[in-house]
Amino acid sequence: MDVVKKNIMALRGTVDIKSKKGVGSTITLKLPLTLAIIDGLLVKISDDFYVIPLSVVHECVELTREDIKNSHGRHISYVRGAIVPYIRLREYFMIDTPVPDVEQIVITEVEDHRVGFVVDYVIGEHQTVIKSLGRLYKTIEGVSGATILGDGTVALIVDAPKLISAVKLDGVEAVI
């Protein structure tokens, strides 16, 4: 374990070990975000790009005007016989442009719950180097970092668990 600790510390990270007799041990490794690479799903809302980590993506489905009408104003969709609540990222990030006729729901699975994120377009898989956000942007709930796309465009990386928690804390829990 000493070798692991030295290597993690050389990368400006930390190792935390907690043990409880008869229960077990928890080992937490923390590395700077600038060293993290994730596989993500690149999505687009209006002219803005976002990356949702593939580790939480379950599937993608279309959300049509008919689906919205059938949900009677609630943020839910019926997917394979199951009710899936969703968060409109357009509303969350306050993007005020026309909504396309057909949107996409990226269904995530977080802590054994499925929650969808509504986006305009799903672009595809994208291997992402996570860059830390500056001081001014670190307070944005639901965003864990950013990445620079091949054409120089910046895409925000969605932190699904924190975004879901932020929406629940804002009193929208009944919708989700």
Summarize, please.
With 176 residues, the chain is α+β, with helices and mostly antiparallel strands. It has four helices and twelve strands.
Oligomer status: single chain
Percent helix, as a range, is 10-25%
Name the CATH superfamily classification of the largest domain: CheA-289, Domain 4
Count the domains.
2
Q: CATH topology of the largest domain, what is it called? A: OB fold (Dihydrolipoamide Acetyltransferase, E2P)
What average pLDDT do the residues reach?
A: 85
Q: What is the 3D form?
A: globular
Computed Rg: 19 Å
Strand coverage percent: over 45%
The CATH class name of the largest domain reads: Mainly Beta
Biggest sheet overview: 5 strands, mixed
* Strand count: 12
Low-confidence stretches: 171-176
End-to-end gap = 42 Å
Structural overview:
- It is a single chain.
- This protein has 4 helices and 12 strands.
- The chain is of the alpha+beta class.
- The chain has 2 domains: 1-30, no CATH class; 37-170, Beta Barrel (OB fold (Dihydrolipoamide Acetyltransferase, E2P)), CATH 2.40.50.180.
- Residues 37-169 form the CheW-like domain.
- Involved in the transmission of sensory signals from the chemoreceptors to the flagellar motors. CheA is autophosphorylated; it can transfer its phosphate group to either CheB or CheY.
- It is an enzyme of class 2 (transferase).
Feature tags:
176 residues; alpha+beta; OB fold (Dihydrolipoamide Acetyltransferase, E2P); 4 helices; 12 strands; globular; disordered C terminus
